[in-house]
Amino acid sequence: MIVDTHVHFIDPTRPQGVPYPDPAEESRLYRTALPLHYKAITAPLGVTGVVVVEASHWVEDNQWILDLAAREPLIVGFSGNLDMRSDDFESNLDRFAANPLFSGIRPRTLAPADYSDPVVVGAADILADKGLELDAHLGYYEMDGLFRLAARVPQLRIVINHIGAGRPIDGIAANPEWAEVMRRIAKHPNVYCKVSAVLQHSAALPAPNDVDFYRPTLDALWDAFGEDRLIYGSNWPNVEQIGPYSQELGIASAYFGEKGDAAAEKFFWRNAKTAYKWVDRSSEGV
Q1: Neighbouring residues of 85: CB distance < 8 A, sequence distance ≥ 6
Q2: Residues 6+ apart with CB under 8 A from 98
Q3: What string of DSSP letters covers 40-62?
Q4: C-alpha–C-alpha distance, residues 90 and 176, integer Å
Q5: What is d(CA 286, CA 278) in angstroms, rounded to the nearest whole number?
Q6: CB atoms near residue 209 (< 10 Å)
C-alpha cells in the first residue's frame, strides 16, 4: 500500500479559473491536473490513495476539493487552506471539518513569524481540539515560530512539507544548517516530516536516479525523525518539472526499502494514517 500525502489537483478550465499557478510565471504547471491524470501515471506503481494538499487560498476551493473527493475514492484525505487569523476561521473550519476527509490545513497565507501570534496559537488549539493537523510549508531558515508553536500546542500534529527545503542535495553531504534545524525540530514528538519534492531539491539537473546521490540528506532525516515520523509525498504535478513521478517514488522506495518491510510500511502509509487520520475508502473501489 502507498498513500501519497502531497498531491495537488488543479483545473484552470473552471469558470472562475485558478489562483495558482500563474500562467505567465509557471506555464508548465498551468494545466489541468485531476485524479484521472494522476491515476494514469501512478496506478501501475501501486499508489492506492492520496492526501490532497491545497493549491488555493480561496475559501470555497476547500469545498471544490471535497466535492471532487466525493466522486473519487482515491482521495483519502485533504489538507485545506484557511487563514488562521480570520474572524471566521472557526466557523469555516467547522463547516469543512464536518467532512471526515478534511484532515487539517496548510495556511500558506501566514508569514513564518505569525506562528508566534497569540491569535494563530489560539487557532492551532482549535485545530488540535478537533483532532486536525497542520501542514507547515516552511524552509528550515524560517522555523523559529514553528518551534514555539510545537511546544505551546503539543497535541497538534504538525507535518513539515518538502523536507523543510533541505537544499542543496548534492550527493556529497547534507546541508549542515538544515540538518541541525531538523534535528532540533524533531525533538518535538508532535512534528512529522514529509519526504516530498526530493527531486526538486537536487543541485544537479537532470536529477540523478541513483539513491546514493540523495542518501546524505535522507540519512539526516532518518537520524532526526526515525521510522515513526517520516511520511511519503510526491508533490505532483509540480515534481514533473524536474523528473517523472516514477523517479520520485523510485528514490523513496529504494531508500526506505533498505530499512526493512516494517519501516517501509510506516513510511508509505502507516505514519500518514497517524498524522492525517486518512480514511480507508478501499471498499468504494478506485
Answers
A1: 110, 114, 117, 119, 120, 123
A2: none
A3: HHHGGGTEEEEEEE-----THHH
A4: 39
A5: 16
A6: 13
**Cα→Cα distances 58→83, 108, 149, Å:** 10, 11, 25
Instruction: Tell me the sheet residues that pair with 159.
Output: 135, 192
Identity of the residue numbered 58: W
Using a cut of 0.85, tell me whether the model's pTM lies above it: yes
The cell for 60 is: 470555497
Which residues are paired to 79 by β-bridges?
A: 53, 104
Residues 250, 209 contacting (CB under 8 angstroms): yes
Residue 254 one-letter amino acid: A
Q: How far apart are CA 8 and CA 50, in angstroms?
A: 10
Map out the domains of the chain with their CATH numbers. Answer: 2-284 (3.20.20.140)
- pLDDT tens-digit map of 8-56: 999 999 999 999 988 877 778 889 999 999 999 999 999 999 999 999 9
- Residues 264, 266: Cα–Cα separation, whole Å: 5
